[in-house]
Design a protein that fits this description.
- The chain is α+β, with helices and mostly antiparallel strands.
- Helices cover about 40% and strands about 15% of the residues.
- It is built from seven helices and seven strands; from the N terminus they run ββαββαβββααααα.
- Helix 4 packs across helix 7 and helix 5 packs across helix 6.
- The protein is elongated and about 55 Å long.
Length: about 180
């Protein structure tokens, strides 16, 4: 989500739009967004304002570049269901070309809806075969390697061979690292 200097929503991607439409952690309010829990909303609004102040300051140069505060907090800890992790960035830190001064970007991560890149994207981005992409998708959904092999109707040995090839193509050394790369 990109929030303009006056609080309006300048951009909301489809995933964020779905979260706002659900309205269980965040929702649209007038021309901006609010957190459903009042204490969460205070934290959200204060963090957005702090990021906006940072966004209006000149970008850091030299040794200080990249050391700006990037607040991350959790919304909905006291509500039923999964929490929502929010990271707030001044727009110039988010490398958004053409943003007006004072714009702020919110990155929302719904811990209940972590998903893997689609198999088509895995094939295009990493050069995986269709079967390698299917195996990666199975693993990203939380299946074990033996369960994934059964679901794909391949032997455990074949699954291990695919996994070695996947590691090589993606440039990782472990299943944990693989999942960090392909999960969003």
């Amino acid at each position: 989500i990109v929030i303009g200097a006056c609080g309006t929503l300048n951009h909301v991607n489809a995933a964020a739009e779905a979260m706002l439409a659900r309205g269980d952690r965040l929702k649209r309010w007038r021309h901006g967004i609010v957190a459903c829990d009042p204490s969460d909303d205070r934290k959200l609004q204060q963090t957005v304002q702090a990021a906006r102040t940072t966004a209006n300051a000149p970008p850091l140069q030299g040794a200080h570049a990249g050391k700006a505060l990037q607040p991350r907090f959790v919304l909905g800890k006291h509500r039923p269901g999964w929490p929502l992790v929010v990271t707030v960035f001044p727009a110039h830190q988010a490398i958004l070309g053409g943003c007006e001064p004072g714009n702020v970007m919110l990155h929302l991560a719904d811990t209940a809806n972590t998903f893997c890149l689609p198999p088509r994207i895995l094939r295009e981005e990493f050069g995986l075969t269709a079967r390698e992409a299917e195996l990666t998708d199975q693993l990203a959904q939380g299946s074990t390697l033996p369960d994934s092999a059964r679901a794909l109707q391949i032997s455990a040995g074949t699954a291990r061979q695919y996994l070695k090839l996947i590691f090589h193509k993606v440039g990782v050394r472990s299943q944990t690292d693989l999942l960090r790369v392909v999960r969003r």
